[in-house]
Amino acid sequence: MMFPLLIVLGLIVLLVAWGVGIYNSLVGLRNRVKEAWAQVDVQLKRRFDLIPNLMETVKGYMSHERETLEAVTQARAAVGGAGSIPERIQAEGGLTAALGRLFAVSESYPDLKASQNFMALQEELTSTENKIGFARQFYNETVMNMNNKVQMFPGNIVAGMFNFKNEAFFEVTEEAQREAPKVKFD
Questions:
Q1: pTM of the predicted structure, to 2 decimals
Q2: What's the chain look like in SS3?
Q3: Topology (CATH level 3) of domain 30-169
């Protein structure tokens, strides 16, 4: 009589341990996603802070390129107003595209390209863009691991019970962002 009860208790203990293990791994993955996003956010903030200096340097040389300058300013404002991670991802894509157009247009201004200030800011932004790329890659890899755990059996059972959701990837959403900016020499 005692033996079947011990087997049932053993199975219950194993089932609880299994559930706790999956729950803890989901919490760990959720925290890794948050940490990965924080790393992306640090680099995006760095870029965001460099843009006003770049704009001031460029304004003196490119006074008749008002449309390009306004596009960067509007894209930067959109980033500042974005609330959720998906909104922020979309706004950052627009800012990346606007900066690409700005650098493409700057090719037409030899005095600007020769400016030490502009060259230093461009190098700083290029370095930051590389760091953003690596941080995005790490974030997306972490999101993939989280989403796999949330969607795959048996993790999906525990994820559903405790309301774990899929996370958003950091991806290009606008076709224009996939294209390299066109450089024209007049």
A1: 0.72
A2: CHHHHHHHHHHHHHHHHHHHHHHHHHHHHHHHHHHHHHHHHHHHHHHHHHHHHHHHHHHCCCCCCHHHHHHHHHHHHHHHHCCCHHHHHHHHHHHHHHHHHHHHHHCCCHHHHHCHHHHHHHHHHHHHHHHHHHHHHHHHHHHHHHHHHHHCCCHHHHHHHCCCCCCCCCCCCCHHHHCCCCCCCC
A3: de novo design (two linked rop proteins) (1.20.1440)
